[in-house]
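User: I'm putting together notes for a lab meeting next week and I want to include a structural view of one of the chains we've been expressing. I don't have a solved structure, so I'd like a prediction I can at least talk through. The sequence is below, exactly as it appears in our construct file.
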Amino acid sequence: MPAAHCDLLIIGGGINGAGIARDAAGRGLSVVLVEKSDLGAATSSASSKLIHGGLRYLELYEFRLVAEALAEREILLGIAAHLTSPMRFVMPHVPELRPRWMIRVGLFLYDHLARRSLLPGSQAVRLDTPPYSDGLRPQLRHGFLYSDCAVDDSRLVVANALDARARGARLLVRTELLRARRATDRWQAELSNGDSLHARAVVNAAGPWVKQILNERLDQPSADEVRLVQGSHIVVPRRYRGEHAFILQNDDRRVVFMIPFEERFTLIGTTDVPVQGDPAAACASEEEVAYLCRAASRYLAQALQPSDVVWRYAGVRPLHDDGSRNPSAVTRDYTLRLDEVGGQTPVLSVFGGKLTTYRRLAEHVMERLRPYFPQLKGPWTERAPLPGSDFTSREDARREIFSRYRALPVAVVEGAFKRHGALAAEVLGDGITGEHYGAGLTERELRYFVEREWAGSADDVLWRRSKAGLHLDARQQARVAEAMGR
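Assistant: Thanks for the context. Below is the predicted structure for the 486-residue chain, given as structure tokens.
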């Protein structure tokens, strides 16, 4: 069989790879993306589920990164409206950790480093009266309030992948790049599905595996080093009332988030632990769980115990090694490294990055590749809604879906809209949804995940395409696994 041809081969189906595929396809390039596992299966589904500027990074003088991230909040609220939502964050003031003037200066910068029209600014608040006193120690009296956003990280990856496919990209999930070598004017790649592929350029967005891919699969020497830093999270039953989150100062100068999650739970994270070995084996350790419980218990009226944890997860951040000895001080900014021979066959590798800035990172990638594709169209993703978010009002779209499916259980309609937005009608179809496994997850949606969203296992469905695994008991989860097996 002759080799297929494309303009751009993208390695990695996390948020950066999916975002780059979407951007490139929309500019007129023929794109093939290969992902050895599931979309967003590694770091991109193990985040703090936030679109945020990174308040802590101001102390590290990461002003460019913070400004870019702050601007992206507003853009993502527009183009991913069914997956992102504004959230107010409360920072209890602990004088011995950071003085009040320092926090005020930081929040002033946070409010003004980028133009802000949708999110309210910061202010001082009292913590010894409602609504922010619930669940906290009574000794905490003063705090600060500021804005960021919550996001469904896994579904953000899927939404970008769906749009990339709709614009002509070919996404090969559970397909690994075995090797690629330079020919005169193209890359010759061999894939684990037996296909051969010729590509004019390669983007290496393999996350924690970026250097391994560069050195071993692309035979490209590189002096760049990657620091692998594990971030772990825990989920516990809801610890306080209200839809606000907390950002908690810790005595090691780090911060820990405490975030409302899936209605009945609180999400707490994250850690910064250097790791070695296979990033796919990342697992929240007992030490990390204990660390997060201690950090939250310093502020909670009722201490948190490891036995309270109902779910834990860990992801490995592929940080570009800047020589910092402290893992928490390693830059969260991204580095794009371009290598080529004779003005042809470029490979661009993505080191670092964060969920919030994936769209802008993709634009930067296309800017770097423009010399190799003179007919490349200009930037376009800033105002183009992702699939499911092409509506004027989220509430109006939700009301229309509920009106259309009055006969279905509320949980089913709510789950479909929460996950798919305006595409919920496509998911629910004629309203015959088959078996209801619980938590709003039905047989029809399961089929949709498999046929339209590349799902291939029960984990893909229960923990990435949805968070139903958090709500279903062992018997219900087994029913989903059985249905996936069929």
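A couple of points you could mention at the meeting. The mean pLDDT is 95. DSSP finds 13 helices and 20 strands in the chain.

User: Perfect, that's what I needed.
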